[in-house]
Amino acid sequence: MADLRTRYLGLDLANPLIAGSCSLHKTVDGVKRSADAGAGAVVLKSLFEEQLALEAESLTRESSGTGHTEAYEYLNTLAMRLGPRDYLRLIEEAKRSVSIPVIASLNCVTPLRWVEYASQIAAAGADALEVNAAFMPTAPSMDAKAIEDRYYKIVESIAENLTIPFAVKIGPYFSALPRFAAELVRRGARGLVLFNRFYQLDVDTRSLSLAPGYRFSSPEEIYLPLRWIAVLSGQLDCDLAGSTGVHDAEGVVKLLLAGAAAVQVCSALYLKQVSHLGTLTEGLKQWMKEHGFESLDQFRGKLRQEPGAQQEAYERLQYIKVFVGIE
User: How far, CA to CA in Å, does 69 sit from each of 37, 56, 76, 128, 311?
Assistant: First the structure.
């Protein structure tokens, strides 16, 4: 029988399939559905940094009639300590309801006081934290170093305040991704999730207004995380999770062959229902049986980049067309 066990962020998972952060996991029932369907772990819906700031502002505004500076500061600090209390309750109740690891998620763009809230997430029982650092620069005056430094400060702040392991979920748009990834790990990240997806922007030509674009990934989007996991898995001392474009068991296998410790699934759970997790698990088992593998470690990273032969296939964007027979 195929052994699908893996370790991710120091956590023991029955299989490498992680039900990714999304609205399906904003309730305990949603978390239970993914667990019952066979997820190895679940990432809760992200809590946004702005939500913490809004709650702090709300409590402070309610107290503004006191005219007491110390009271103002106290309530502002209290708001940050409490944060969105429902999220903490979700963690606590989810942990009581399922036996698989529950990973909290924070979506942030600055290294401000919200890091204090990370400690409360750990106290609520979360097994790990996923930091979704989705900062999109739009000002021509902001250079690459300033952008990277913002990420470094976020990671360092969390590492100083958190007692549970955390991974950083990043996008692919960095000029020197391997160096950037290595710095995130050096500054405290236990794992990296490759990659997050910026919400797509569209235009409604009838109303002449902005509109959301298509929100789900397509199977073709797997190629980007596949390349970078293959390149990075042998060079970084951290766990890598593949995300984006995972819609079938073949996609799961590809990311594991590239060196992923775990594989996140999200869009497919909407398009094919949560029960699709079972289909992915069975497909992985069947592939392993056909190829004579009894455990993930027997083939994980088999196709990652290694120094020497065929290295150009991972590095030269045009040469790879010849290598795989396109030209």
Answer: 52, 15, 11, 37, 62
The fourth-level CATH superfamily of domain 6-323 is: Aldolase class I (3.20.20.70)
pTM summary value = 0.86
Q: What is the CA radius of gyration of the chain?
A: 21
The partner residues of 106 in beta bridges, in order of sequence, read 47, 131
Print the SS3 string covering the chain.
Answer: CCECCEEECCEEECCCEEECCCHHHCCHHHHHHHHHHCCCEEECCCEEHHHHHHHHHHHHHHCHHHCCHHHHHHHHHHHHHHCCHHHHHHHHHHHHHCCCCEEEEEEECCCCCCHHHHHHHHHCCCCEEEEEECCCCCCCCCCHHHHHHHHHHHHHHHHHHCCCCEEEEECCCCCCHHHHHHHHHHCCCCEEEECCCCCCEEEECCCCEEEECCCCCCHHHHHHHHHHHHHHCCCCCCEEEECCCCCCHHHHHHHHHHCCCEEEECHHHHHCCCCHHHHHHHHHHHHHHHHCCCEHHHCCCCCCCCCCCCCHHHHCCCHHHHHCCCC
For 87-106, what is each residue's pLDDT tens digit? Answer: 999 999 999 999 999 999 98
Q: 11-51 pLDDT, tens per residue?
A: 999 999 999 999 999 999 999 999 999 999 999 998 876 55
Question: Hey, where are the domains in the chain?
Answer: 6-323
